[in-house]
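FW: tagging you since you asked about this chain on Friday. Here's the raw sequence from the shared folder, copied in full. Didn't touch anything.
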Amino acid sequence: MNTVIVLDESLSMGANRPASAWQLTATAIAGLPPGSRYSLVRFGAEPVLEAAGRPTTELTGQPTRPRKTVLDATGTNIEAALKLAGRQLDGDTPALMVLVTDGGETGGDATALLTRFQAMGLPVPYLLLDAPDASGPDAAINTLDAPSQVPFGAEITVVLNVSSTRDGPADIQVRRASEPAITLGVDLVKDQVSRVRVPLGFDSPGFQELEFSVSMPGDINPANDRRHAIVNVEGPTTVVYFTTRPGTAFAESLLAGGWNLNLVRPEHFPQILPLLPSPATVVLDDVATGDLPETAWMALTESVRSRGTGLIVLGGQRSFGAGAYLGSTLESALPVTSEAGAPMSRAAVLFVVDKSGSMGRGARGVTPFGLAKTAVLAATRLLGEHDLSGIIAFDIDPQTWLPLADRDDPPAAVMDAWQDAPSGGTRIAPALLAAAEQLGGARVDQRLLVLVTDGFAVEDDYSEVLAKIDDAEIDVIALAIGDEPALDVLKELTSRNDGLLLRVSDVAM
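HL: got it, structure written out here
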């Protein structure tokens, strides 16, 4: 059996009659033979198809009718509703159409259509309800039209369609966050829809909860008196400015221009990011990927893609190519890549790798020493054909695995020289001295010392190391392996020249 319920929900039906009629009808249809299906057409001035070809078994114990579609309840068009209901019948399955209405048709003419249905053998039983109690008026807000988003300081006009079953005065009240804001007086005309325009201004940004209500003396049906709206008032755009260099020209120009600027050091970024308002703009001024953990870059990228956060990235000695953007999460959020388009100057890159016992401790087969090998291999793949490369491994004492030299295939040389046997204690200073001596004798345009360690070392005197690094103009890049590396020494080493401290906590980096 294919049953179509045609339910009148116009204003003349009142607030409670459609719900009661639905419960009565649904209970009866739920008892139809297995395999039966139902459709629901709700109507007022125009009909809407709320459910189509649903199994009647789902009606058992369903107290409320489906009501996902907005309905114009200011009129009653039974003819249009019956036409829509007729299109839900396939002609081959036994069918039944149930009409629930008070019969107060304001548009169309259902009489001829009902006669034709009967001639076709289609039963259309009525559930004809009495008109609502006419002892008092019923004023209602039928629809509300308000913008969902407005600029800060702008004035908007909210349009209400208000109707009444009696002539007479009524009040329109607006509440903001449950507090009274505006009251307007209107004169309503029986059975007509009045368009009421309510001007509103906003003196603070953020989401504003608004409630509109109509009140008329003696109103018998308060259920249709209220409508709600939420308006997002866009405040002045917040600019969150991250830099390691205070007093930059761009930051000063923004402040001079009256922007809402918040200067924040990169290490505070993970705490700031979840608190960013919408909209907001993030400026990265000469910030390297190693200045933040990978989780922070992932969160920023997601905020740019899904929350509309603006992102401005400025160049400098620690950003883009020099900031290890190539292949990073940050690079994926930018419209450019960080790979140089022209030949680079010749460089000498010496990897100083910690092979102490602490580098061999890990979980689920992943150790800091394994991560170190992955990082070094990835870095050697980026070397130019004329660059020099080498590896010094260390525990208490340094060992030269690969002397600094020009190689045709640096990754293959690393694979051949690598020794997977971390053990012993940790002294970083002797290994750095040995590396500084090799780099100092190289005739190149740039000298890079790449230190790969978990940072757990005995206390040492680094004054001689720092002096040699300064004399040879060596840039130190420290890859801090693991979740909790000791960073104090690494920060001191990478603060010289164009140094860089990068956190490496997983294979994906």
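FW: The two ends are 62 Å apart (CA to CA).
HL: agreed, and The chain has a mean pLDDT of 83.
FW: great, closing this out.
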